[in-house]
Design goal:
Blueprint: H1 8-21, E1 30-31, H2 34-41, H3 45-57, E2 61-64, E3 68-71, H4 74-128, E4 134-136, E5 147-148, H5 149-152, H6 154-158, E6 161-167, E7 170-173, E8 180-181, E9 186-190, H7 193-203
Antiparallel strand pairs: 1-3, 2-3, 4-9, 5-8, 6-7, 6-9
Helix pairs in contact: 1-3, 1-4, 2-3
Pfam family, one: TrkA_C
Domain HTH gntR-type: 6-74
InterPro entries: Bact_HTH_transcr_reg (IPR050679), RCK_C (IPR006037), RCK_C_sf (IPR036721), Tscrpt_reg_HTH_GntR (IPR000524), WH-like_DNA-bd_sf (IPR036388), WH_DNA-bd_sf (IPR036390)
């Protein structure tokens, strides 16, 4: 992500203001000519001129024709530095927020790709092993409980074939039509994806915990 870069002349203006605040340059003192300031801070004369212009616009210094630059106000130099610091903090906060947004977008993209991969893998497993059973626990308040598989006509109503019932710690394999489905039972069945929703609707009339 590109970083906001502070102009060089603005940084030199802050350096001069800092020298005024720390009394390295006294109020009323005449600073060197722009060419000397340029050499002192290792910048071009044009950069030094722009820095002085920034300070002059804020009444911190005053260019005096033929005799350099006069320092006018330590207080305004202090205010300039405080504003510059706030501006940097604001830019840093803005950059941090943009970085967080970019990271969040990247995470969401990765999550979407992982979810798509999971769906694809699940579909392949189902295709390779269509008899892989689903697991379903009916709601304890379901009106379909305490009735036999045969009387409920589960296959006719849902397309699901019950292959086992887990009652407490007893697993009943291939339960016949006379086996009752009791509260707390876990039903294992095979069928299509449509039968999953059909079982949910048949027993509870809503979405439930089929695995």
């Amino acid at each position: 992500m590109p970083k906001i870069k502070e102009p060089r002349y603005h940084k030199i203006a802050q350096d001069i203001a800092e020298a005024i605040v720390t009394k390295k340059f006294e109020v009323g003192q005449k600073l060197h000519a722009r060419s000397t300031l340029a050499a002192t801070f290792g910048v071009s004369a044009e950069t030094a001129r722009k820095a002085i212009s920034v300070l002059a616009d804020l009444d911190i210094v005053r260019p005096v024709h033929g005799s350099g630059v006069e320092v006018l106000s330590r207080e305004k130099a202090r205010d300039f530095l405080a504003q510059a610091k706030e501006s940097r903090n604001l830019q840093e906060t803005h950059s941090q927020i943009k970085a967080l947004i970019a990271k969040q977008k990247e995470d969401l993209t990765n999550l979407d790709e992982s979810f798509s991969l999971l769906l694809d893998q699940t579909q392949r497993v189902r295709q390779q092993n269509p008899m892989s059973p689903f697991e379903f626990v009916p709601n304890n308040h379901s009106e379909k409980l305490n009735q036999s598989i045969g009387s409920l006509n589960i296959w006719q109503n849902t397309g699901a074939t019950i292959i086992a019932i887990l009652h407490n710690d007893d697993l009943i394999l291939s339960p016949g039509p006379y086996a009752n489905i009791l509260p707390g039972d876990t039903i294992y069945f095979v069928g299509s994806d449509k039968s999953v929703e059909a079982m949910q609707q048949f027993f509870d009339g809503k979405q439930n915990n089929i695995k």
